[in-house]
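Complex 283.
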Amino acid sequence: MAFTVQDCFKEIGRLEKLLSRTIEGSDVDRINRSEGKPVTVSDDTIEVLTRSLYYSKLSEGAFDVSIGKVSSLYNFRDGKELPDKDLISDAVKHIDYEKIVIDGNTVTLLDPEMMLDLGAIAKGYISEKLAEYMIDNGISSGLINLGGNIVMVGSKRGEDFRIGVRNPESADNTPLGSIKGEDLAIITSGTYERYIMAGDRIYHHILDPDTGYSAETDLLQVTIIADRAYASDCDALSTTLLLMGSEKGMEFIKGIPYAEAVFLKTGGEILCSSSSSKFEIWS
Ligand code: ADP
Ligand code: MG
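Predicted structure with adenosine-5'-diphosphate bound:
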């Protein structure tokens, strides 16, 4: 039978059913309900977790998928109120990626109250795997967009794809710039899409594991560009750099040879980590 876009949606659904924190019976849900007992999960979940732990170590815990107990307190979709501050201060005690133990296909949480949330990396992982799945099924040209996670499959029939990077401050949707290429992953995280307005402050959805509140950052948006095979890494990195802010983030990304970053600072300044950046400012 011919391969269709419906097969792609099925593959996305298959992975979502493993990795989502909010789907009952998913691998992540079973781990979160395990109360410290070992849980056997799929190869995909192990792969995402292994990569997550890599970025946790590299970022010294700024990126931490054991943030679930805190992130699940927030309602960023239509919430108007912050969670109770005592709940937050209790929940941050249960964030510690070093207490996630992987042994073969078994995951054990050494802190039984800990909860995982793969939200910072799962979309990147799914887009990476979907691209491979499409290629395995004979697709030589395609474009995947999972909520701001862009992955190019091959080229645009022999020509470069051209992807616009959004400027969240532009009233008329003029992009910040564009990126041309083939087989690239382009992944953006921002502080402006999901947030809670409380008092006169904006609380966005990228959280500081030390405080349980939105990370203090001078960045409005971070875009990571790398080869398609690094899409999950790009997703982890976009979240990590946003947390770190421009100075620390710039230093961090310069130590990673396979990816570059484009920062948009609050106030409008654009910074590129690579002198030969694939990003071209819109003009
Ligand atoms: P988006 O999902 O909007 O594309 P990100 O990739 O930046 O954005 O991921 C944000 C999500 O990451 C949050 O919704 C939450 O699930 C999770 N998260 C928040 N803070 C952290 C953190 N410090 N470390 C790891 N994951 C986080
Ligand atoms: Mg991310």
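The pocket of adenosine-5'-diphosphate (ligand 1) is lined by residues 63-65, 67, 71, 117, 119-120, 123, 147-148, 189, 193, 205-207, 209, 235, 238-239, 243 (CB under 6 Å).
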